[in-house]
Amino acid sequence: MSNSAVAVPAAKPRPQHAPLTQFEVAGDELLVGGMPLTRLAARVGQTPFYVYSRAAMTARVQELRRHLPPEIHLHYAMKANPMPAVVQHMAGLVDGLDIASGGELAVALDTPMSPDFISFAGPGKSDSDLTRAIAAGVTLNLESEGEMERAAIIGRQLGVVPRVAVRVNPDFELKSSGMKMGGGPKQFGVDAERVPEMLARIGELKLDFQGFHIFSGSQNLKVAALQEAHEKTFALAIRLAAHAPTPLKTLNIGGGFGIPYFPGEERLDLAAVGANLKAMLPDVLPQLPGVEIVIELGRYLVGEAGLYVCRVVDRKVSRGQVYLVTDGGLHHHLSASGNFGQVIRKNYPVVIGNRVRGTERETVSVVGPLCTPLDLLADQMELARADVGDLVAVYQSGAYGLSASPSGFLSHPNAVEVLV
Ligand SMILES: *Cc1c(COP(=O)(O)O)cnc(C)c1O
């Protein structure tokens, strides 16, 4: 057999990042909040920084309102981005805030959002957390029977009837999720099979029962998986509602809508998710009369609205491979480095912010200043040719960025955050 007869398999096309259009490009430079990135860096006064765009967040909420049935209430899960200015902006757009710590409670209470539409989830609420939340009048998403008993005692001491919902650990999980938070044994919520007994106790304790919180997972891009989770969530809620001391006022069905981070990931088909929910509601709502259905979203609301920007401080070549060494890295942006729960490290979308397309291209690795090989922002990625002083911009950085990173590690200067 001659060599020419051997079939050479066609090279598989490399998976690409989903197209990102949230920031305009003018003169080959990113425009953020109407300002070229280099000028924005001068305005901020330092690199590295995070920049979040009000316009992008507003547009995302409008898109959700367009596609979700009008009966669905939209909450912002603050842990995705707790910057007070961001939370203020979101509070004017959404119907409620979901918090998961005493610190987040304080930020949420500084916004105009009524405590009636603030709910507090999270295992391990201390007596101090419970006291503050009950005094504020926010809803406690109870994570255990023990928490329920402590809340009842604190409520009696304060002379305030605690508003409570039960966080249910469902008997199913959200399939193909980046992070599973329900199904099987979990530290979150109360196992569905124990909830009827707990509801009876809520009646005895005369707590102000609001409803259920059923959150089954996060970072999901699959319409079918979300549809299945929503169907099972409604069925579970209807089943448990039969044991409730009073009719459900709210049913928080979680969220889990994902955004495309990595090559090959496709944007969630929001229109299809909305259409599926619309089809379910005529069956669900009559079985839960008067209920308000809530979807709580974090990264889907803010993740695409943010960039992380750092500056190239050195350019070096090691055995043929180009390294751009920047002043930013995993100490500010653990998730982009691949160390925030990812199993296999993949590149976030990264560009040279002041040479987005760039006529000259090269394959480089972008690293940070930390003395650890984990400090990697882009691994062998094709970018415009960059030099010392150029700006590296990491997309999809509006959620789980600075507040989810070990900023003390290696004692480099902190990043700042701006909202434009
Ligand atoms: C983290 C969290 C969210 C937000 O998740 P996203 O993936 O950012 O949308 C929502 N609800 C609960 C209970 C959470 O713990």
TrEMBL record:
Keywords of this entry: Pyridoxal phosphate
Residue intervals of the Orn/DAP/Arg decarboxylase 2 N-terminal domain: 56-302
Pfam families: Orn_Arg_deC_N, Orn_DAP_Arg_deC
Coiled coil: none
Similarity comment: family membership: Belongs to the Orn/Lys/Arg decarboxylase class-II family.
Protein's organism: Zemynaea arenosa
InterPro entries associated with the record: Ala_racemase/Decarboxylase_C, DCO2ase_PEP1, De-COase2_C, De-COase2_CS, De-COase2_N, Orn/DAP/Arg_de-COase, Orn_de-COase, PLP-binding_barrel
Active site residues per record: 371 (proton donor)
Name of the featured protein: Pyridoxal-dependent decarboxylase, exosortase A system-associated
Keyword Cell wall biogenesis/degradation (UniProt): no
Residues with N6-(pyridoxal phosphate)lysine modification: 79
Domain of life where this protein originates: Bacteria
GO molecular function per UniProt: diaminopimelate decarboxylase activity
Residue intervals of the Orn/DAP/Arg decarboxylase 2 C-terminal domain: 49-398
Keyword set includes ATP-binding: no
